């Protein structure tokens, strides 16, 4: 089941095409990361999926429901946490959650119960009487997350939920996201923190309105550098000739071999070098950051 399916999704503002023919498929239950530099079109894409702005061209379906044609039905399935804090600063934390719960049709008693449950869950219960405008950045983000969940949506779209949040709280946020995933919610998230993006099970990289790379973090890295890097520490010279070795270079007394699949080739490398009489100290896959992978993609 696809949680999100966009077909040639496009948004133009006047002559400027912010989102240009995007075909996105997010499976139910995934934690999908939408990444890209400032202005790439991430927020515009999310706003179209959330039914907040109309596509200039193309279509969006959420769990099979057309967001443009059956907007009311679709909106019941979607929770949205905007990039910019947009709650009522002159209402308290609890009042904000209750208000949004009421807007989604919950009774007064249900709304109160829902607020209690969400505020406890996201560690805001003790601040329930504080005005939203007086919250710290991290608390505001948790309040926005609570509000996005009032109607128990199946799909949660989070636009930079951890922007400006300190590292311990960012970690906490990712624990929340993992729990939500476990409960069966699909998450589409944008972030500029590449270490966080490693936690997504699939990613799409956007640039200038288009998707320029898509896959699991591992697939994306492999594609960016053309294979897997294996670090070899050995006494003697490393010479590897096989069709699966794309290159070997020496860097800081180590050798870096670019191969098609590190897991398969590492034992073969060890055997090959030992056969040549080279004393092997270690052969290990080298960690490539997503940041490096993306810089390579964006450089093209
Ligand atoms: N309502 C609008 N009118 C005109 N241009 C817009 C509008 N909304 C967005 N844009 C433009 O569309 C492009 C994409 O913006 P968008 O906010 O989707 O990018 P983003 O990937 O979310 O960036 P960021 O990482 O900075 O949040 C930008 O050049 C932006 O200026
Ligand atoms: Mg944005």
What is the fold's blueprint, element by element?
Layout: E1 2-13, E2 16-22, E3 25-27, E4 31-35, H1 42-49, E5 57-62, E6 65-66, H2 71-75, E7 78-81, H3 93-103, H4 108-121, H5 137-148, E8 155-159, H6 167-182, E9 186-190, H7 194-197, E10 202-207, E11 210-215, H8 217-225, E12 228-235, E13 245-251, E14 254-259, H9 262-275, E15 279-285, H10 290-299
Parallel strand pairs: 4-9, 4-10, 7-8, 8-9
Antiparallel strand pairs: 1-2, 1-3, 1-5, 5-6, 10-11, 12-14, 12-15, 13-14
Helix pairs in contact: 3-4, 8-10
Can you describe this structure?
Helix 8 crosses helix 10. It is built from 10 helices and 15 strands. With 300 residues, it is α/β, with parallel strands linked by helices. It has 3 domains: 140 residues, Rossmann fold (3-Layer(aba) Sandwich), CATH 3.40.50; 62 residues, no CATH class; 63 residues, THUMP domain-like (Alpha-Beta Plaits). Strand 5 and strand 6 form a beta hairpin. A 6-stranded mixed β-sheet has the order 7-8-9-4-10-11, sandwiched between helices. The structure holds adenosine-5'-triphosphate and magnesium ion. The site of magnesium ion has 4 residues, from helix 1.
- What order do the SSEs take from the amino end to the carboxyl end, as H and E? EEEEHEEHEHHHEHEHEEHEEEHEH
Give the N-terminus to C-terminus distance in angstroms: 34 Å
Helix percent band: 25-40%
Q: Structural class of the helices, strands and pairings?
A: alpha/beta
- What compounds sit in this structure? adenosine-5'-triphosphate, magnesium ion
- Please give the CATH class of the largest domain: Alpha Beta
CATH architecture of the largest domain: 3-Layer(aba) Sandwich
- Using only CA atoms, what is the Rg? 23 Å
Main beta-sheet annotation = 6 strands, mixed
Low-confidence stretches: none
- Figure out the total of helices: 10
Number of strands: 15
- Percent of sequence in beta strands: 25-35%
Number of domains: 3
CATH topology-level fold name of the largest domain: Rossmann fold
CATH superfamily of the largest domain: P-loop containing nucleotide triphosphate hydrolases
Give the integer mean of the pLDDT values.
95
């Amino acid at each position: 089941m696809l949680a999100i399916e966009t077909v040639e999704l496009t948004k133009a503002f006047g002559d400027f095409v912010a989102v240009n023919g995007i075909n996105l498929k997010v499976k139910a239950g995934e934690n999908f990361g939408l990444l890209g530099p400032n202005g790439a079109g991430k927020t515009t894409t999310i706003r179209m999926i959330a039914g907040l702005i109309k596509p200039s061209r193309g279509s969006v379906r959420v769990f099979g429901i057309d967001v443009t044609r059956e907007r009311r039905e679709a909106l019941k399935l979607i929770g949205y946490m905007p990039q910019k804090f947009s709650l009522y600063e002159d209402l308290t934390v609890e009042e904000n959650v209750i208000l949004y719960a009421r807007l989604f049709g919950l009774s007064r008693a249900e709304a109160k119960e829902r607020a209690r449950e969400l505020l406890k869950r996201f560690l805001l219960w003790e601040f329930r009487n504080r005005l939203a405008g007086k919250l710290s950045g991290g608390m505001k983000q948790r309040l926005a997350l609570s509000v996005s969940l009032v109607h128990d949506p199946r799909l949660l779209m989070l636009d930079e939920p951890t922007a400006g949040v300190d590292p311990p709280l960012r970690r906490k946020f990712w624990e929340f996201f993992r729990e939500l995933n476990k409960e069966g919610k699909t998450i589409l998230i944008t972030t500029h923190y590449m270490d966080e993006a490693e936690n997504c099970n699939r990613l799409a990289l956007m640039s200038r309105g288009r998707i320029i790379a898509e896959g699991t973090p591992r697939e994306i890295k492999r594609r960016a550098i053309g294979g897997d890097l294996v670090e070899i520490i050995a006494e003697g010279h490393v010479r590897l000739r096989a069709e699966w070795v794309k290159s070997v270079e020496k860097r800081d007394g180590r050798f870096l071999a670019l191969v098609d699949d590190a897991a398969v080739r590492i034992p073969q490398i060890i055997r090959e070098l030992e056969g040549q009489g080279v004393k092997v100290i270690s052969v290990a896959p080298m960690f490539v950051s997503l940041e490096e992978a993306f810089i390579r993609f964006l450089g093209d």
